[in-house]
Amino acid sequence: MNALTEPSLMEPRGSHLAASLPAALDRLLSALLERRWTTSASDRLTHGSDESSYLPCPPWGVAYPQSTDEVAQIVRLCSEHRVPVIPYGAGSSIEGHLLAVAGGVSIDLSRMSHVLAVRPEDLTATVQAGVTREALNAALSGTGFFFSVDPGANASIGGMVATSASGTNTVRYGTMRENTLSLTVVTADGRVVRTASRARKSSAGYCLTQLFAGSEGTLGIITEVTVRLHPVPEAIAAAVVTFPDTVSAVRCVMETIQLGTPLARAEMLDALTIRAINAYSGMTLQQAPTLFLEFCGSEASVAAQSELVAGIAAEHGGSDFAWATRPEERSRLWKPRHNALFAALQLRPGSKSLTTDICVPLSNLAQCIDETVQDIESSGLLAPVFGHVGDGNFHCLVLVDPNDATELQQAEQFSARLIDRAIRCDGTCTGEHGVGLHKKPYLVLEHGEDAVDLMRRIKRALDPHNILNPGKVVDVQVP
Amino acid sequence: MNALTEPSLMEPRGSHLAASLPAALDRLLSALLERRWTTSASDRLTHGSDESSYLPCPPWGVAYPQSTDEVAQIVRLCSEHRVPVIPYGAGSSIEGHLLAVAGGVSIDLSRMSHVLAVRPEDLTATVQAGVTREALNAALSGTGFFFSVDPGANASIGGMVATSASGTNTVRYGTMRENTLSLTVVTADGRVVRTASRARKSSAGYCLTQLFAGSEGTLGIITEVTVRLHPVPEAIAAAVVTFPDTVSAVRCVMETIQLGTPLARAEMLDALTIRAINAYSGMTLQQAPTLFLEFCGSEASVAAQSELVAGIAAEHGGSDFAWATRPEERSRLWKPRHNALFAALQLRPGSKSLTTDICVPLSNLAQCIDETVQDIESSGLLAPVFGHVGDGNFHCLVLVDPNDATELQQAEQFSARLIDRAIRCDGTCTGEHGVGLHKKPYLVLEHGEDAVDLMRRIKRALDPHNILNPGKVVDVQVP
After folding, report:
1. 8 Å CB contact of A198 and B429
2. Complex ipTM
């Protein structure tokens, strides 16, 4: 299968897209939710889009439940009418996850925004799925604990579980997967299931928590999440260091990790991204591959880590090693990294980004980035590169005019070559963004037909009428 | 459902236990494996037992494959004849996982004992499923890296994934689940599937790795495993400290964890276990709840951790804080913990242990242990208690005469009360041992009927003829 034989990036299609919402269902949802059910054009448009470069594909209506029980009632009604349901969190996904390619009802969980419990003694919190990561961390303020997963966007916790999100401090604290203890999920027939207890570990049957994590709303709708918390470290230090080339920067991170140094963050920006930041922020950073690092622990340990890494960086030609411990200085030092996405988009005002997301074993990372940067240069695309190099994960932001079909096709061809390269390195087509519509054609390439067949069997077993976010992750035929 | 309405502990039954191996299958397996296929009584007996107090339930024959391809061929032959297959690793499971309750073929993976790759740059290794954890660590000797999961027994890596095992240093390094990157699995119809790439993280479709982990051979047979490695720490320190009561010992560990101190191990032994050790090893340890701790990191960090914990312990009435950093001293200090299992069994020579395995949120642990020790005292059972208190997981070794039905029933009743108590605390019936035969009745109590229904659907989807270790984890009807 090939991405290019799929519906084009701009035109998701639902072959079984029905004409409209059944009138009876509309009446039932109105009766159930009153003004929290809408079929207004503007709400539908918002809920049929995400942060990808896909054109919108609106649902037939939008429901705003306030409880797990209401979600279950909505799903039961939709299930009876065989109408698709698409869970919607913060709208920040980027692979077409939210597009209503088969019509149906968008279930917007943003009003399920209560932090249900914070348990410092257990290092856990339980939240409704619509709570955003920033809201959770605000609720934790002053407790001495924080929620670690930071994918950049202020995503909803439910959405972060659903896509198995991660982000900058995964190298230290793990992905959303490792930070999720238990879920409450509404099944395809509207039953409410809790996937696990709050025990830190369990061997009690199949791990439903990790099956729903990363299933992108196609196996069930996540309504509550119990997450792990971490103690706020005593000390944090930030460092920035410039390298002559990508290989040197990546080798510096690899050696640091091999020595067991507990890096909290290890981000690399390529020269083009630095150029974008200089233009965007009026800075004069050296236009070269640059590492943004963070250390945490006790004050003594942070100082020792920083000294160690400065030494390793120097061995790899690193220069201009700058570091800071006070909050405002750390902020200033890391500001270019935080602005990278917006700065990159400003390299070409009006463009949208087709954002790649491969992840490879660390030993293959340097070469993979190198080949990719050469590919970008030879193909004439404009694509800043940056990523979570401690995890082997990096992104290319291919800046495209969303109305130029030729350009879009070139960007897709580049993405396909990049994914081929990642899979040859024994890596994955998506480290943290998920499959959605966009990565579906690559699942067989990555996992093989037999593994994808198992995924389809699971989908059919848990959603026999294919009403849960149909057309995403895997395609199945309804009998 | 109630454990006591299930087949008794000593008499696993297979209602659909066929009389014998189909002669045609016997001929085919002989032709395929020659002398690596046997129906000898002694081999069958060994492979129908585990470390539980169940009486043996032998398979019809034992196959010793040497490769994934051979496992696939065996499964295809068995699948055609609808004959059960039961994967066998090191035989160290303790919930009846290996008993051939429906007859069938035991697939002994011990000859698949090759370490296929060690990749220090990626912090991973790939092994055949029959490699034991000690063999893997021997192969890693001198590399500067180690494999962290230590369930006590010298289990096979495949078996450890299949039961989602963990052990003493989970509090620092995570369970087998978090240390498994990718699996090669033979499916019910004999296809070979690789569940994931070697990327450190991925969002590429449903997480098959975590679905097969903990599935106890009921969804597929794990033949190869890619695990994470960790750098050998620069310094390790061991400490032992005695407490006036269980609550104080547990509170000491909780506070240490809340401060973000990276404990490598945190084990508690109750007074009875200490009495057993004194008798077994001729020692004179104080008969009181005792913590065995381990710290690791840089030398400075280890010293700082140890000082911090000594202070916390003192606040909770801890006394006789002893610590050591040199390997031989650390060994000496921890020797009682390593001998705990054997010492405990010697409290009653000739007995077997019905070993419980609950795990609860940390905030409920002290009370749960306290109530359990009172229950033991009032029920007149002999049951040392010890566990991985940093994870909220502890074991009672209920010492029973395996030929005394009344005593076995009392032990089962105690176990049922303990599990009830754990589930009331929002914990699990099994933290690391798995379900096997023994915990099946408790899955509905823990997860609810709807969650177990999802597990059954997954089982039927992946093993429609119920040939993969039938009768374990969940019961399903074959159409």
Report:
1. no
2. 0.95
